[in-house]
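Z., the sequence and structure:
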Amino acid sequence: MSGLIAAAFSRHWLAVVLLVAGAAAHANLMPFANARVQDESRSEQSHYRVILSELKRSQATTFGEREARISGSLQRTVWALPSGIELESVISHYQHQLDGKEVLYQCQGLDCGSSHFWANEIFSNGRLVGREKDQAVMVVTSPRSDQRNDIWVVYMVRRATRQVMVNVDYIITSDALAGNELQRSRIEQVLADSYGWLPGFIVTDERFDEAQSQVLVDTLKALTPGVKQRLHLMVHCYDSTDMASNMRCSERLAQQLRAAVFDGQYDVNVTGLGALTLPPDEQHRPSLRFVFWPERR
């Protein structure tokens, strides 16, 4: 009997360990193989800076052209990887884990700005200073069921010693991730791909709501003529079980969007395609899809 009790206790203890390990992995993401923790801390933040663009320096102040300030619980972990690990492998490792979540901002190499500023001004850790051409940033969010949001800020850099360091900030916040700058950053991040669904497309009373969609309209208007020529927008409607009704809805909205984004000189290609593709989510609301052709390289 004592053996059965011991076995049951062992199974229970293993389940608890796995549950705790799973929670830790969710918070900090699974580290790269054989990485070791160099630093770990937890704190409550009232003005955490979520950087949404390249860092810049002006009048002794470091800033992102687009950034948000949030409050919440921060868990910060700094990993040191074994020598000889390629940065691309590390980037792929974290991209795979964050796949499916909403990307607020990402960059690589010189596009991220100064490594010195990321290390010292954002993460307060001089050990993260490295080669500016050998760095990458990912800012990703995912909503929770309790109206809060998970945010991961992952900074990866290869130092002059060729050792790769990774800083993972995991924030739980109740703050709404809203605002025109954040919305514009989301749209620009999506348009960096060759195809996908565009956020910010709002329909009210069966009409394209230009006022509520102003950030999307302004972002599309600001695209260069060459980009506009390659960009193809497709409006989809899903309200009806009748395909013809969905087609009429999408063609009407496409015409309204086309007029809204015309800059007086260059048109944007906008087509209504009804329900001729699966919706992006379960809400079945009118949605806007895009494709670049030729595709982005």
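The longest strand covers residues 36-51. The helical segments are 2-28, 87-98, 115-122, 180-191, 214-221, 225-230, 243-261.

Let me know what you think.
H.
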